[in-house]
Please model this.
Amino acid sequence: MLETFGVPSPRFVADVSPKVRDVMQAEVLSVTPDATAAEALGLMDEQDIRVLPVLDADQRCRGLLSLFKLSKFLFPAANRLVDSRRVLSSLENLARMLGGQLLLGHDTRREEELILMISAMAIETFSQRLENYQIDKLAVVTGDRTNVQEAAILKGVRVLIVTGDLPVDPKIIESARQNRVSIITSPHDTLTTASLCRSAVAIRHMINEEFLSFREDAPLSAVRAEAAASGFAVFPVTDADGRTVGILSKADFLKPVDRKLILVDHNELSQAVSGAEEVEILEIIDHHRLGALTTQQPILFRNEPVGSTSTIVADCFFRENVELPKPIAGLLLAGLVSDTLNLTSPTTTARDREILPRLETIAGVNARDFTDHLFASGSLLTLKPAPQAITTDAKEYRENGHTFSVAQIEEVGFDQFWKRKDELHAALEDYRRGRNYIFSALMVTDVVGQESLMLVAGQKKFVDRIDHPEPQPGVFQLRNVVSRKKQLLPYLTNCLQRMKAGG
Model:
């Protein structure tokens, strides 16, 4: 139909419920596992955030880094003062963190645990204190005190860090080379250098590997309770391949989702797209019976007893003197002749008969020829598997405390129906049981003969109330019945009433 009138296929949306992607923060501020604590702390301070996701090269989340845990590591409690001397880093990371220069290095990429020692004492005291530590783990921070530098090198400390961007005597460098001692120069003073050394640790040592993540296409309603009950402040959001594409905080659940709907050709939520009950409905344009639907505010509800919603939409164009494009006129004509069987259905009204010729003129289409082509173009019962055929135009209804479905297929003759009756009935029964309906009906209408057959799968107490001729079990002959809305639905609801009354 779309090809006939040169209209591109619209995007199919199966679910409009608010999703995680609708409220998540799409710009992900993150760090890698090898980032230093100082780099992470700088990002947190700059962006005023307290938790960062830690992502690998494939954008997969390896954990969360919290400001609390970072602070706890960098500033140990009084009962863990020994930790204030611990430096967990490679020499390359240490030099990079200090913004200094690695003058001399041995095994510089190996991550190791160092013990920080500041030489703010006399040479004699310094030499004595060296004996209290494991020498090959010592990182000695000093200025340009040559005697301290010499003593540390001769003892074989792991690394000598010279502060204040001061030059290092070539003799000292040569001595360090002979004793396999590394040398780093720092542009900062001693206190700043010592503080920065502690923050050179890779943040993989302090991340929380336990976290809760959500898929970007997960409904908000499905994850809200889980997120609220968790102890986490933020939640990584992943795509279908597990890559992190966003961050969700508990505050994000309060964001409004700007999604609005206009219901066309239906007014019951049971027949609407999934998630319609969770978004704002702006307007309804329909020609069916009124269902039980409530809205948060007054809306425009245009419901008219005509044979097709296409008639109402076309009339909106004509009434407001808005130019109706030829392709749209063609689609509206197709909907009108399909709904009213080219004005032969009992649902047809004078308004439909008035609108159709105007659509013919604009679209440049003869309605009779188009209708013949429409119904001869292919049988749904020939083209579709049984489970799809019975649900292509199925509508759900609620009446007298019961839920049921009625589908309609328009065919030229009943040959295909009789060939596939058994598999259609089996599919209809599976569909009914899967949704716990009291019954499901399939109305097959012969557009030429102007009559229908109804296939019913349902509870016996209901089926026994159907008093139309039954040529085969579960198949009822509906003479002169072609309208689901105006003829069949009132009859079926009457059967439900009689069943409830026991008549």
